[in-house]
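input
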Amino acid sequence: MSAASEILRDSKKIVIKVGSHVLAGDDGVLSSAAVKNIVDTVTLLSEGGKKVVVVSSGAGISGAAALGRLNRKNDINYKQALCAVGQVELMLEYKNHFADSGHSVGQILLTAENFTDELSLLNIRNTLFTLLDEDVVPIINENDSVSTKEISLGDNDHLAALTANLWSADLLIIMSNVDGVYDSSPQDNKKARLIPEVTDIDKLTESISTAGKSDFGAGGMDSKIEAARVVGAYGVPMLIVNGKRREPLAAVIEGEPFAGTVFIPKDGK
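output
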């Protein structure tokens, strides 16, 4: 059994972050099939007795598709308007698919300010516990429609890491559109090698180049590695998994070889 399988088996409280590219089809529009794939994965974990919190990107691409504006403008107000429209579309997709599996969903929109106020942190934590006790799947996103540069969390990888620490999660899973961390860019180097296990993030960052960001997503591989650093400080492991694959966690659950990257913290919680 791989280290990833053992970690997943032993984890009872899991945060799953889903990137925009995971939810988008080849046309750049929110894919209902992609959302269902994530919902099926969450349902599989839930049926195994695990509590799952979802941190989901995708409001931007959903809004762009709804308004027929696939090319986003640089104006911040336009971007915020797209997210306001898209958040409704995104949650509707989640709601419909989770309903098919017998689950309700609850939306939580956050900004960086929420993580600097003690009372706000307590309220978020209590809300998460209450929703999960009622068998409701919490779906978290940054409140992009009101966030500004000064109060922005930056990307949902960071938001997911903060959420995992706040909720005292056992595991953070990052669903990306790549298998994991490579020793060089697989787009530029066909011989790029997937790094299956990381125990020293500093040594990793010294040896690889992770530059690059998506058009709609705020974070590239850099932000995912930093998310591993944030949760690792609390003793929480992290997996990077290709969320574009069908049933992306099924093989890991069955103990088969892990086609991703697992970050194992040096110290316990």
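quick obs: The first strand starts at residue 13 and ends at 18.
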